[in-house]
Design goal:
Layout (H helix, E strand, L loop, with lengths): L2 E7 L7 H10 L5 E7 L5 H10 L2 E6 L4 H7 L2 E2 L1 H6 L4 E5 L2 E5 L2 H12 L8 E5 L3 H12 L4 E6 L2 H12 L6 E5 L7 E6 L17 E9 L8 H8 L4 E3 L2 H16 L6 H7 L1
Parallel strand pairs: 1-2, 1-3, 4-6, 7-8, 7-10, 8-9, 10-11, 11-12
Antiparallel strand pairs: 3-5, 5-6
Helix pairs in contact: 1-9, 5-6, 5-9
Bound molecules: 2'-monophosphoadenosine-5'-diphosphate.
The site of 2'-monophosphoadenosine-5'-diphosphate (ATR) has 15 residues, from helix 6.
Length: 270
């Protein structure tokens, strides 16, 4: 019988995760079945129980259930604890375990696939929602010179910055988008105004010479953020398709005990 996994979300119809995990599994003829499950907004835990009863071994979790999933876990990894959210679940006996592979996936894509350096660089993060909380720990572990978190609601950026400042070797500063100043080498966008949404107005001159720009979302076309960064003279830009595949590879390895190749899967999705 196939080993059963799924992704929970609401909505979830758009998810590429089944394609990705089936492509991983086929690399070694691993018999994996990976489904999309739309959990009701008010009953994520019920959906999880039903999945377990169907023989589910593990699951990915996407919007809006990552925080609820975190609360349901009996044990979580350090990076999930930092994020306060999990995107990967698995059972050991009856115990539900959780990890958050988003940050590791993003860093792996930026550092290893794109070959961009974070260490010693000035990083600007746009947004201060769940997506940012998920990646801050692994981002700071790369030892940037500083991380500035800028958000429409300044207070949220300040709270998030304080949360991650503890135990970080790099300064983490939170502020609003208005009056944002300084020069940055790596700019990461996590403002979820949608693929076709407008970029919020930002001042010119934020990108230092040779700066690179990474959008956590992906699409067929360059995102509004990528276009903005190009206009601002970015040396390189990328969307977040690689992050999607790399966070999946981390989850797959937890579940299946072997590391899938990602390059071919990224090419397939493009
Ligand atoms: P996600 O899981 O994608 O991070 P989220 O937790 O809802 O989703 O966070 C959405 C982020 O996008 C927030 O930083 C939000 O800014 P606020 O905290 O001020 O709400 C930001 N965002 C969404 N729409 C935006 C817009 N039109 N302009 C600027 N920021 C926006």
């Amino acid at each position: 019988m196939s080993s059963l996994y799924c992704v929970f979300g609401n909505p979830v119809a758009h998810s590429r995760s089944p394609d990705i995990h089936h492509a991983f599994a086929s690399q070694k003829g691993d018999d994996v079945r990976y489904e999309k499950r739309e959990a009701p907004l008010e009953d994520f835990s019920g959906a999880l129980e039903a999945f377990r009863a169907d023989g589910g071994l593990g699951a990915n979790v996407t919007v809006p259930f990552k925080e609820q999933a975190f609360e349901l876990c009996a044990a979580v990894t350090e990076r999930a604890n930092q994020a306060g959210a999990v995107n990967t679940l698995w059972w050991e006996g009856e115990q539900l375990n959780g990890d958050n592979t988003d940050g590791a996936g993003m860093v792996k894509d930026i550092r290893d696939n794109l070959g961009w350096q974070i260490q010693g660089k000035r990083v600007l993060v746009l947004g201060a929602g769940g997506a940012v909380r998920g990646v801050m720990g692994p981002l700071l572990a790369e030892k940037p010179t500083l991380v500035r978190v800028a958000n429409r609601t300044a207070e949220k950026a300040q709270i998030l910055a304080r949360r991650f400042m503890d135990g970080s070797n790099s300064p983490v500063l939170g502020s609003g988008l208005e009056g944002l100043a300084g020069q940055f080498d790596v700019v990461i966008n996590a403002i979820s105004a949608g693929l076709h949404g407008e970029m919020p107005a930002l001042p010119d001159g934020l990108l230092a010479e040779g700066a690179v720009a990474y959008d956590m979302v992906y699409g067929k076309e360059p995102t509004p953020f990528m276009r903005w960064a190009q206009q601002q003279g970015a040396a390189a830009v990328s969307d977040g398709l690689g992050m999607l595949v790399e966070q999946a590879a981390e989850a797959f390895e937890i579940w299946r005990g072997w590391r899938p190749e990602t390059a071919a899967v990224m090419a397939m999705l493009r």
